[in-house]
Amino acid sequence: MIRKTCVALALAALLPAAHAEFPDRPITLIVPFPAGGPTDIVGRLAAAKAGEILGQQVVVENRTGASGTIGMAATARAKPDGYTVGLATVSTHGTAPHLFPKLAYDPVKDFTPISNLVTSPNILSVNPQYPARTLAEFVSHVRANPGKDGYANAGAGGVNDLGMIWFLQITGGKMNSISYRGSAPALTDTVGGVVPVIFDNFPSSLPYIKSNHLRALAITGTARNPRLPDVPTFAEQGYKDYDVTAWYGVVGPAGMPADVRDKLAQAFAKAVRDPATAAKMEETGAFPLGNSPAEFGEQIRAERDRWKSVIERAQIKLQ
Ligand code: GLU
């Protein structure tokens, strides 16, 4: 017995003390968009469960602005010890890097991918006062009124801004981009009638559509969403090549120790697959994923390249 203890102590002394017991204090998850938006909704759900699994709280800190790039720059600059990670999105790692000439980070080189937690479709909705009742009516109304209306979005150069710019290019329409710090304030103004149209990630728009404060016209993706089975996809309304998916994944700064990265990845993946947490995610219309660091790294590169070619092909520039 005594001998065993001595051996255990001797082994413990050989282990690198710095992260032998990771985590031994709370972890900060930087959410780069405001409270009440989709990144915040999924981030808080995952953080609560991952904290339980890790035995340490995962504290959400909203650091907003510039389409999520401010919070992501802070994540990239943090100490790579696993105690500060961030929730990357398609905007921060897919679209913005091609449109922000002074971006303070490289979406691949400056981060350690941990786990992509959730994917979500996007949805085009209008204030109920807006004349269009269907996507076809929307397209003809916008064509007949070039430059008259605005669309609200969660940040210039982010996925909701670009998704709309791309759709307008396909359909020959012209609208004004009205950018906010995130979906939550963009929705407030659309529901309030300040801006008539919004292209948003699904989870944040869903409650307003259900309560008839917004009228949904089309959803992205190959299938309708079970939360709103009456809303047709863009594809089934004739826009087969038009697809815009949102995602939210945990990343750390570059250079994180592999064991710390893997411990976080396993905890977050387990969190989003936990039946109760997954059910809550699915209620928002999002799809839990929880993949590995290698898979997420591959996705980040693929998304960066995909959006580069969309932007170049459509010659998209920020307004
Ligand atoms: N649309 C943003 C994105 O997918 C998220 C907006 C928000 O969370 O407020 O990157």
Average per-residue pLDDT, rounded, comes to: 94
The CATH superfamily of the largest domain bears the name Bordetella uptake gene, domain 1
How many domains make up the coordinates? 2
Q: Look at the helices and sheets and give the structural class.
A: alpha/beta
Strand order of the largest sheet: 2-1-3-10-4-11
3D shape: globular
SSE string, helix = H, strand = E? HEHEHEHEEHEHEHEHEEHHEH
Give the class-level CATH name of the largest domain.
Answer: Alpha Beta
**Small molecules held by this entry:** glutamic acid
Question: How many strands?
Answer: 11
Q: Fraction of residues in helices?
A: 40-55%
Low-confidence parts: none
N- and C-termini, Cα separation: 72 Å
Strand content: 15-25%
- Helical run tally: 11
- Rg, Å, rounded: 21 Å
- What is the CATH third-level topology name of the largest domain? D-Maltodextrin-Binding Protein, domain 2
Q: Any guess at the CATH architecture of the largest domain?
A: 3-Layer(aba) Sandwich
Which sheet architecture does the biggest sheet show? 6 strands, mixed
Write the layout of secondary structure elements.
Blueprint: H1 2-14, E1 27-31, H2 38-54, E2 58-62, H3 69-77, E3 84-89, H4 90-99, E4 111-120, E5 122-126, H5 135-144, E6 150-153, H6 159-171, E7 176-179, H7 183-191, E8 197-201, H8 202-210, E9 215-219, E10 246-253, H9 258-273, H10 275-283, E11 287-288, H11 293-313
Parallel strand pairs: 1-2, 1-3, 6-7, 6-8
Antiparallel strand pairs: 3-10, 4-10, 4-11, 5-8, 5-9
Bound molecules: glutamic acid.
Pfam family, one: TctC
Family: Belongs to the UPF0065 (bug) family.
Signal peptide: 1-20
